[in-house]
């Protein structure tokens, strides 16, 4: 007897795509949401907590793939200290890429090093774009980082990370990019970064890494893991030689927030070789 197994019916290519997904309006909206979030120094998770909208849906919004409701858009806008009408305005608020000056500066370090905080504030002071490489990867995949690792694994994340970095370089983008804490462990991607960007390791004590993450409202690193601090110390020891290959090392624990921002601004200005106005004094 021949047993036949019914093949699972494949959905239509656009079955899971919301109506209007990928339209110019939704793409423009996504760009404005992403621009506002970065200018505010927020991660996708931060915006999700503030707006009550899931991180995965925010990834779709920023990727121009979500036909967002008025209620959700209003919640997102309020969390970004703006209005839904401003996000839907016709005039783009992001400066053209051609107007960006200076070098591409890449911030290295584990979570809690201060990459988003220092990067966004230094970028605002210098009038430069700021981008998180992780956010580009999440937008490209159409899912959160957690889902990427759970569904596709580390190798898939690494491939997207390398491709998104290569896109930044190929487009000639300039500004500040915050990288993942483990990017330095991927030889090919790290070498590309070192060739094409001014690399800065934001060094911090293990205790400061932990406290900063907790201050952001995330106690997960300590949850049910009494050896978490020792694990962090071990990771820092293992990656120290890689991080030290950065062109600059900025000790955020020793300098504190404001002095770290000042130092980062000076590093970027020096690397710009006169293409940026002098950094503010004070």
From TrEMBL:
Q: Where in the cell is it found?
A: Cytoplasm
What's a Gene Ontology MF term here? Answer: ATP binding
Q: Name one Pfam family in it.
A: SKI
Which reaction is catalysed here?
Answer: shikimate + ATP = 3-phosphoshikimate + ADP + H(+)
Q: Which SUPFAM superfamilies does the record match to this protein?
A: lambda repressor-like DNA-binding domains, P-loop containing nucleoside triphosphate hydrolases
Which superkingdom?
Bacteria
The pathway where this protein functions is: Metabolic intermediate biosynthesis; chorismate biosynthesis; chorismate from D-erythrose 4-phosphate and phosphoenolpyruvate: step 5/7
Its top-level enzyme class, in one word, is transferase
Where, by residue number, does substrate bind? 134, 158, 181, 239
Location of the region described as Disordered in the Swiss-Prot/TrEMBL record = 1-25
Q: Which cofactor does it need?
A: Mg(2+)
**GO biological process annotations for this chain's record?**
amino acid biosynthetic process; aromatic amino acid family biosynthetic process; chorismate biosynthetic process
Question: What's the Enzyme Commission number for this chain?
Answer: 2.7.1.71
Q: Where is the HTH cro/C1-type domain?
A: 33-87
- State where composition is biased (Basic and acidic residues): 1-13
Keywords of the record, alphabetical order, are: Amino-acid biosynthesis, Aromatic amino acid biosynthesis, ATP-binding, Cytoplasm, Kinase, Magnesium, Metal-binding, Nucleotide-binding, Transferase
Cofactor binding, per record:
Binds 1 Mg(2+) ion per subunit.
Q: Name one GO cellular component term.
A: cytosol
Q: Which Gene3D superfamilies match?
A: lambda repressor-like DNA-binding domains, P-loop containing nucleotide triphosphate hydrolases
Binding annotation for Mg(2+): 116
Subunit structure, as described in the record: Monomer.
Q: What does this protein do?
A: Catalyzes the specific phosphorylation of the 3-hydroxyl group of shikimic acid using ATP as a cosubstrate.
The record's annotation in HAMAP family points to: Shikimate_kinase (MF_00109)
Stated family? Belongs to the shikimate kinase family.
The name this protein carries in UniProt is Shikimate kinase
